[in-house]
């Protein structure tokens, strides 16, 4: 791929991020996965077993589960339970409303019992903004879900149950300073709703798929891409998530990150058009080149952006 983005290489692998499927009970405007209720792609049991086999054979200590809504995969609890038995720290990328879906009774309790770290989408502390981005009624359901998680011990003093929130901008601009916005979130959510959380992650919207279509329809794509390039910081190249993470799709194929997965840019391996996770067992990934493109500027612009929020 022709791009002005600098060449980068991998360091030691720390996180296995697994997309359990593109089906979701929501259909958000900014979603880079194009997830929604009508998507059929879902990781099957045989591929999930490959994930467990890889975890057994590698030094990875963090499993990051995403989607869609990862909890909609019928084997979600199996993979969480299996990873926890190995002492691997599990992160659930939760949209919060899934906790009130039919057939998801007891899900919040299951996450708490297995000490799963929850990283939950909440693009604003104001109802109007959340509902505009994620759908009518989403904010009220999210508040109820957050209160329930707090009641189960998440983010409570002395508890080891971690609850993080995620902010995405409402339009074609960079997120504000993460620490200052986190203070605003903390104050507003506790004063208005009695909700507490551990950290706020600010994540720059990726100019791919659904959000890219919005940019194009509004005539804003060129301006947004220019903004990302001008805000690029070389220092952020040292901390971008693709250097320590690999992303696995619902079929078991591997990518440098979730965004590359959505663009069909596979992990580089000489002589291979794409790589299955099972082929990486016993292989070192350090110093391998990372597939980059123009979209990567979203991760290095300003304070930087990753699945764990700002990186500088």
In short:
With 312 residues, the chain is of the alpha/beta class.
Spell out the key features of this protein.
alpha/beta; TIM Barrel; 312 residues
Name of the top-level CATH class: Alpha Beta
- Radius of gyration, in angstroms, nearest whole number: 19 Å
Strand order in the sheet with the most strands: 6-5-4-3-2-1-7-8
Low-pLDDT stretches: none
Oligomeric state:
single chain
Shape: globular
Number of strands: 8
How far apart, in Å, are the first and last alpha carbons?
27 Å
- Count of alpha and pi helical runs: 10
CATH homologous superfamily title: Aldolase class I
Secondary-structure class: alpha/beta
Mean pLDDT: 93
Number of domains: 1
CATH architecture: Alpha-Beta Barrel
Strand content: 5-15%
How much helix, percentage-wise, in residues?
25-40%
Largest sheet properties: 8 strands, mixed
What CATH calls the topology is TIM Barrel
Helices and strands, in order, run as: EHEHEHEHHEHEHHEEHH
How would you sum up this structure, described in words?
With 312 residues, the chain is an alpha/beta fold. The chain is built from ten helices and eight strands. The chain has a single domain, classed as Alpha-Beta Barrel (TIM Barrel). The chain has an eight-stranded mixed β-sheet. α2 links the parallel β2 (62-66) and β3. The longest helix has 16 residues, at 178-193. The radius of gyration is 19 Å and the shape is globular.
